[in-house]
Amino acid sequence: MLKFLILNWKDLRHPQHGGAEIATHYLAREWIKLGASVTIFSSETYPLPREEIIEGVEITRRGNALFSHFLWSPIYYYQKWKNTFDCVIEEIHGIPFFTPLYVTQCKFALIFETGSQIWEKNIPFPFNYLGASLEKLARPLYREVIFFTTNPETKNELQGYGIKRVHLFPLAPTLLPPRNLQAKEKDPTFIFLGRLVPHKQIEDILKAFVLLRQNDELSPRLWIVGRGEKKYRKKLENLVQLLQLQKQVRFWGYVSEEKKYELLQRAWALIVTSIKEGWGLNISEAGICGTTAIVYPNPGLTQNIINGKNGIITNNATPYSLSCALKKLILYPSLKDELGLKNQQYQQQYSWKSSAQKLWDIIIATLHSST
Predict the structure, then answer these.
(1) Domain that residue 251 falls in
(2) pLDDT tens for residues 205-245?
(3) Which of 8, 72, 224, 345 could bridge to 62 as Cys pair (CB 3.0-4.6 Å)?
(4) How many separate domains does the chain show?
């Protein structure tokens, strides 16, 4: 039996997990079906246990996600893992684990997006400078490592850094299409779904709603679904008050999976305004629920949308362009149904089985060539 070790700063049950952790878990689950054992080394967070098995995936948690977790990795490697695993897959979110310095087995890197603009947007000075510097410092070490990523923009960035082998793979929806879709809301209702962090640029959505009210006398509703940084949520709540959007905007906070899919079905469209993403797993989830998406023309958002076919890509990454796209859907409500159906059909072409198999084939071929 092949043994895979995945290094990641968070796992599926971490309270701040996102689409990347969901994707990693689904890939690990498929690799287990193909005959491997998979261990994920993640950070600790109360009250999660230090050792746990989730759907066959073994989880080991040590250190905190911000810093000490990265120090635990080489310690654990030398103490327990050096001769245990056939390959090590390092998942990189900004600061890497620097595995080329100590891992002797076959090494792979899984990355959904580079830090670049996210450091400046999400992390305060001087920690953003330190993180960006560490990311830049590590790049030469990874030139011979095989990378897996999900969008062409990230692939181009990596190749620009001198990474020689980068393989693309798609993500897939995390559920099957509902047998009976919930009816759409009668009044125009849009949804943001994701972690509340600055690089998601939720402020732009609020500003677009103000433009709709000022220029076109339109008052759609917005559901903000997800948890995240308390400071950022408070900033958004204050902005809603300042812009007098209290009657239009509702903060749902964290909701169950069942409620999430209900809201996705009822909404007219998902709105995604991030600076960059790895894939936009929420776009896939919305599609399976028969809902279209309106997205900014930013890295990681456009490879999952064919403009005018299964969603709308705004002309520019600005609140004004977003308001124009929202207005189009409001004035032509049948468009939401047409695009939603096409998005559901489009997302069904992807499966976790085929994505995991593609990466599995590369891993196995690499292992064979190194023996």
Answers:
(1) 189-347
(2) 999 999 999 988 888 999 999 998 899 999 999 999 999 99
(3) 72
(4) 2
